Amino acid sequence: MINWHQTEGWHDPPGVSWIEKQEAWNFVLYAEKASRVLLMLFSQDDYYTPELVYEFDHFANKSGPVWHCRIPKSRAPKAFYYGYRVDGPQKNEAGFHRFDFDKLLLDPYARAVHFPPDFDRELAKKPGCNIGRAPLGVIDTDDAFDWGDDHYIRHDSDLVIYEMHVRGFTQNPNSGVPEVRRGTYAGIVDKIPHLRDLGVTAVELMPVFQYDPAEGNYWGYMPLNFFAPHHEYAMNHESRDVRDEFRTMVRELHKAGIEVILDVVYNHTCEGDDRGPNYSFKGIGNAMYYMPTPGANGKADFANFSGCGNTLDANRLAVKKLIVDSLKYWRDEMHVDGFRFDLASIFARRSDGSISMDRPPIFSQIVTAEDFLNVRLIAEPWDAAGTYQLGYSFPGWLWMQWNGRYRDALQRFVAGERGMVPELMTRIYGSADLFPDDIQHSCRPWQSVNYISSHDGSTLNDLVTYHGKYNWDNGEENRDGSHEFKWNCGHEGEEKTPVEVMHTRRRQVKNFLTLLMISNGSPMIRMGDEFMQTQHGNNNAYNQDNETSWVDWSRKEQFGDIFRFTKLIIEFRKSFNSICRSRFWRNEVSWYGPEGHCDLSANSQVLAFSLIGTQHDCRDLYVMINGSPNPVDFKIMEGSAITWKRIIDTALESPHDIAEPAGWQVLDKPTYEVRDRSIVVLCRDT
Description:
Elements (H helix, E strand, L loop, with lengths): L3 H5 L6 E5 L4 E7 L5 E7 L9 E4 L2 H4 E2 L2 E7 L8 E7 L25 E2 L21 E3 L22 E4 L1 H5 L14 H6 L1 H7 L3 E4 L33 H17 L3 E6 L16 H9 L2 E2 L7 E2 L14 H16 L5 E4 L19 H7 L8 E4 L20 E3 L1 H11 L6 H9 L18 E3 L9 H4 L35 H19 L4 E5 L27 H5 L1 H16 L13 E4 L13 E6 L7 E8 L5 E4 L9 E5 L15 E2 L4 E4 L3 E8 L1
Parallel strand pairs: 10-11, 10-19, 11-12, 12-15, 15-16, 16-17, 17-18, 18-19
Antiparallel strand pairs: 1-2, 2-6, 3-4, 3-7, 5-6, 7-9, 8-9, 13-14, 20-21, 21-22, 22-27, 23-26, 24-25, 24-27
Helix pairs in contact: 10-11, 13-15
C-alpha cells in the first residue's frame, strides 16, 4: 500500500528532508497566498538550466498554507541546489503582496545557502528573471557530526560574557592565526588559549546567520536566512564544510568550559523595503512575513520598526514557527547554549505596529519550546522606533537584558559627571529599580547584563581617548552613531599623547573594568577591550570590514599591563561568590562616604561600600570609589585596619594596581588616601 504522503509529500517539517526508505526528498514551503509554485532543482555544474522543474498541483500538493511534494532522487540524480518560483496576487493590486513569478527564491528553511559565481544583488531589486544569479538552497541535508561527549554549558555566578565578531576577532594579520584560518570559526578555535587565559566563560558571537555578502553590512545584522551559518566565516564556503567548521568551534569552546551565545536577528531581513532585493520572503509571501503600514494610493508599504526597511511579523503563525524552529535547530543541531535577541521589543508589537501590554505569545512559545528550559535568553529590550522595555516591563519573563541604563550611568560617572552617586549605587547593587524583587515581580539581579562598551558604540579605549566621534568613513557625513558620555583625559586622540594623559587613560579603563566586575549582575566585555582596542573614534563601524574593526593584536603587548589587570579582575570576581548572587545584597551591603554617611549630594563624586560574604564565600569586601579630580582620604568604616588587605588600587602602576592573593597587602592605618579618579578594593576573612 502506498500512502498519500509518499506520492504527494508530507507537510512537515519545512524545508527539504531526505527520506531514506524511498530515496526521495520531501520539500515543504509555507506560501499561504500563493496561487502557483514551481520547484527548480539544479546541479553543481549549471545554475541556469534546472535538472528538474516540478509544478505543484494545489489539489494534491497544498494543505492549508503549506505546499509540499515528494521527489525521488532518480528523477534528478545530479540535483544539489534548489529554489522556488512563486506567483500570486499582482503587485498593482491593493494590499501587501510583492509576488514576482520571474524571481528564483530561496527557501527560508534552507540549512545552507550557495551563491553562484554570477550572483547579482542588483538584479534581485528589479523585475524580471534572475535564474543563475540568485542565492540557492543546498539539498545536502547530511547532519552527521562527531560531537563526542559534548554537552551544553550554563554558568551562573562565574558568568563573564565576551562579545566578539567572528571575522574581526582574527582577521588582522597580526592575530597570529594562519592566513587560511583568519576571520573564521576555525580562527576562534586557535584563540581559545587567549580566552581561557583571560578568564571569560561565555562568548557572544555577533550575527552568524547567513547574510547577503553584497549588502555591505560587516556586522551581519541583515540576515538572509535563519538556519545557515554565514559561509564567508568558514575556510571553505561550501555548505557541509561551513556547518562542520561552526560545530567544531562550538565543540572546542565547550571543551574549554566556554558557553556559546548567538546574537540573533529575527526582527527584519536583508530584503529591506521596495527598494531592496527580492530574495526569499518577499516573493514567497510578503504579507505573511512582514508587517504592513498604510502607504500611498491605497497600497500598503513596509512597516519599519527595525530601522532596516522592514519588520517581521511575529504574530503570524508562519513567522512564529520559523523563529522557534530556527532556535531549536541552532540548539539541537549546532549545540548553541543561548541567544541574544536583537531589538527584542519588536516581538511585543501587534501586526498593526501597536504595543501589546500583555505577554505576546512568541515569548511563551520560545520559553516553552521542547528542551528550552535551561537555554540562556538575552534581550536587547528596545527597538529602533522608540519602544524601551528595559526591566520588569519587558514581556519575556526572567529573560536577561542588556542594561543600557547601567552603561550610561557608568560612562557618566567615570567621565567625571557630578551627582551620579545615587544612580551608581543602584547600578552596582544590581539595578533593583529595573528588576525589582518584590512579591509581584520577583526579578533577579543576574537578569541585568552589565556592560560599558559593546559593538554598538566606542571601545573602552576610545571612551577615554576621544571627545568627539569620527565616523566619516561610514559614508553618512558623521551623522551616525550613538550619543555617549566620554572624556578624553585632556587630549584628543592617540597622536602625541602626553605621558600624564596616558597614565590617566589607563587608570580610567581600569576604573571601568573594576566597577563592572564589582557590580551585582552579569558582566559583559567587548572583544579587544582587555588590551585597549581602538577604532580611532569611530563608534558605529557597521560597514568597516578593515583594520578599523579588526582586533589589533599588537596592542596586547603594547598594553600588557591592561591585559594583566583585566584577567586578574575577572579572576577576582569569579573567586568572590558574594559579588554575583542569585538575589540582591539587601542588608549585607552598607554604603558610606569618606567620613561616614554616604554623600548623595548633587556635587558628590565619591562612594564607599562594604559587602558581607555569603555562606559560599566567607570573605568581606570594602570598596572606595573616587570619581573626583582630587585625592580623598577615606576612613575605613568597618572593623580595624589590620583586618583588611588591599587587592586593587587603580591609581598604582602595574603590577601593584592589582595583586594576586599572595601579594595582598595588610593595611596599617584606619584611613586610605584614594587618589583622584581611582578605585581601591579591600578584602578580609571572616
